[in-house]
C-alpha cells in the first residue's frame, strides 16, 4: 500500500524546524555523552573485585556496602558498578569511628 502525503508550505516549514531542533538536541546530547566519557576515563575506576582486593574484604562485602549506601559508586548496569578509590577511601575515613580496644 502506498500513501501519498500532501503537505502545505507551512507544514514543510514546521518539519524543517523540527529537523533542525532534533539535530540541535542530538548534537547537545552527543556533547554531554562525550564530556561524561571524558571525565570517567580520567578517573581511575575500579571494578567490584578490584575494590574488594584494595580494601582487603570479600567481594560480597563491597556489594553489601553499595546496597546500604555506605560507599560512593557509579552504576554501569543493573549488576555492574565502578568505584573511584580516592572517593571511596575519603568517604570511609569520614564515616568510620575508631573504637578503643577493651
Brief summary of the model shown:
The protein has helices at residues 9-42, 48-55, 59-67, 85-94, and strands spanning 45-46, 74-75, 81-84. It is mainly alpha-helical and 102 residues long. The protein folds into two domains: 10-42; 44-96, Multidrug-efflux Transporter Regulator, Chain: A, Domain 2.
Fold and architecture overview:
The longest helix has 34 residues. 60% of the residues lie in helices and 8% in strands. It has a 3-stranded antiparallel beta sheet. With 102 residues, it is mainly α. α2 packs across α3. The chain folds into 2 domains: 33 residues; 53 residues, Multidrug-efflux Transporter Regulator, Chain: A, Domain 2, CATH 1.10.1660. β2 and β3 form a beta hairpin. The model has no long low-confidence stretch (mean pLDDT 81).
Helix content: 55-70%
In terms of quaternary structure, the protein is: single chain
CATH architectural label of the largest domain? Orthogonal Bundle
Strand order of the largest sheet: 1-3-2
Number of domains: 2
CATH fold-level label of the largest domain: Multidrug-efflux Transporter Regulator, Chain: A, Domain 2
Please give the alpha-carbon distance between the first and last residues.
85 Å
Question: What does the radius of gyration come to?
Answer: 24 Å
Average pLDDT value? 81
Shape, per Cα inertia axes? elongated
The H/E string reads HEHHEEH
Strand content: 5-15%
Primary descriptors:
102 residues, single chain, Multidrug-efflux Transporter Regulator, Chain: A, Domain 2, 3 strands, 2 domains, mainly alpha, three-stranded antiparallel sheet, elongated
Amino acid at each position: 500500500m502506498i500513501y501519498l502525503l500532501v503537505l502545505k508550505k507551512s507544514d514543510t516549514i514546521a518539519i524543517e524546524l523540527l529537523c533542525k531542533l532534533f539535530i540541535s538536541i542530538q548534537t547537545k546530547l552527543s556533547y554531554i555523552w562525550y564530556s561524561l566519557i571524558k571525565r570517567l576515563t580520567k578517573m581511575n575506576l575500579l571494578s567490584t573485585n578490584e575494590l574488594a582486593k584494595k580494601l582487603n574484604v570479600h567481594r560480597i562485602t563491597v556489594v553489601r556496602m553499595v546496597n546500604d549506601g555506605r560507599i560512593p559508586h557509579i552504576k554501569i548496569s543493573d549488576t555492574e558498578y565502578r568505584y573511584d578509590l580516592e572517593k571511596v577511601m575519603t568517604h570511609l575515613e569520614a564515616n568510620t569511628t575508631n573504637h578503643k580496644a577493651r
